[in-house]
Amino acid sequence: MRSDLRYFIRDNYYCRLNQVKYLFKDYFVKKQYKVVDYHGEFDQELRYILPFAYWHHVNGTLEKTISCKNTKEFYFFSKNHEEKYTERVWQAGYNYYEVPNMTHSNTFDYSKWLRVPLKKQYTNSIFVYDKPILIIANKYNIEWDKPPVNYLDIPTLDKLISSLKGKYQIIYNRPLAQQIVGDNSETLDLNEHDWIRKTHPDVLLMSDLYQQHSSQVNNYNHLQLMVYANCNRFISMHGGTAAFASYFEGINIILSDPIGGMEHHFNEYETIFPQLSGAKILHARNREEVLQHVFTHY
User: Fold this and answer.
1) Do 233 and 251 meet the contact criterion of CB atoms below 8 Å apart?
2) What distance in Å separates the CA atoms of residue 87 and residue 84, rounded to the nearest whole number?
3) Among 114, 35, 117, residue whose Cα is nearest residue 81
4) Out of the domains of life, which is the source (predicted)?
5) How many CB atoms lie within 10 A of CB 19?
6) Same domain flag for 162 and 220
7) Better-scored residue on pLDDT, 75 or 258
8) What does the pLDDT look like over 121-131, one tens digit per residue?
9) Cβ atoms of residues 263 and 292 within 8 Å
10) How is residue 45 annotated by DSSP?
11) Are residues 94 and 159 located together in one domain of the fold?
């Protein structure tokens, strides 16, 4: 392992070692005591925090969960969930050793980590169409303090939609800045929503569904959970978008350019991402590979 990556593994092993002090409470006393409090990156919350909290729920040791605004639906199993934070702070994930896994690693500890059954919990009869759903979960924001890298531009979207709309009911999802809790990654404007409405009117936009079903959902995250739960085909982008889509089984094509992010170095698209639900993960390193995976598997 490269020397500049070893500290990730060091931190993850320290997280596991730190769990020794809870051995008696977790396996012998087994009373409700654990307070899971987190407001860092959405990706880390989905990969590490949520499965850890769910394990404590099943184990009978979960007392309370604390997270950001509009996260109650993710923690549906928690009888005492507080939406305390209005903003995500990426630094909150550093030096946070209260869960067995907290950062990138070549191996993960699943002894206090359980799949969260979001698909089973939110499968519904509302978002059902004549054709099976395919979700394109795009993003367009600053990454690693640099211009956007992992996103589908309009020409690529046009190729995807044109080739898939005959077989699938495509739902396009790129949340607007006001619809989700922000972090350090500034959301930019790709100007694709109006283009999709005009060029591909049979494609449903998640933001439009939110307006149409506002009386049936509690917030934008609740809508996403309900729509994703009814879907088995996803195209998603590096980060929280990819982790979220990996929670719902089926196949998830993830665009993740090796230019940034540590998932590549630690082979995480073959370890923890499939573990989230048993989904088949297909890693695309560029837009051309996204198209290749789509034409082969969809």
Assistant:
1) yes
2) 9
3) 35
4) Bacteria
5) 16
6) yes
7) 75
8) 999 999 999 99
9) no
10) I
11) no
Six token digits for residue 297: 């598997």
Q: Structural domain of residue 91, as residue ranges? A: 3-102
Closest CA to 172 of 123, 207, 140: 207
Structure tokens at 47: 């990969």
Query: Shortest CA distance to 8 belongs to which of 241, 254, 285, 261?
Result: 261
Average pLDDT, the chain: 93
Q: What pLDDT was estimated at residue 180?
A: 59
Residue 218, number of CB atoms within 10 A of its CB: 12
Distances (CA, A) of 142 to 139, 183, 184: 10, 11, 8
Across the beta sheet with 81-85, the strand order is 34-37, 62-68, 81-85
Q: How do residues 153-188 score in pLDDT, each as one tens digit?
A: 999 999 999 999 999 999 999 987 555 555 556 676
Q: Do 287 and 181 belong to one domain? A: yes
Tell me the CA distances in angstroms from 195 to 77, 198, 251, one per residue in order. 39, 5, 27
Q: Is the dihedral of CA 278, 261, 157, 174 positive or negative?
A: positive
Rounded distance, CA 228 to CA 137, Å? 10
The two tokens of residue 128 are 């059902």
- CATH at 135: 3.40.50
d(CA 124, CA 249): 16
Q: What is the pLDDT of residues 30-61, one digit of tens each?
A: 999 999 999 999 999 999 999 999 999 999 99
Residue with tokens 């549906």: 76
Say if residues 174 and 140 touch (Cβ distance below 8 Å): yes
Does residue 116 lie within any of the structural domains? Answer: no
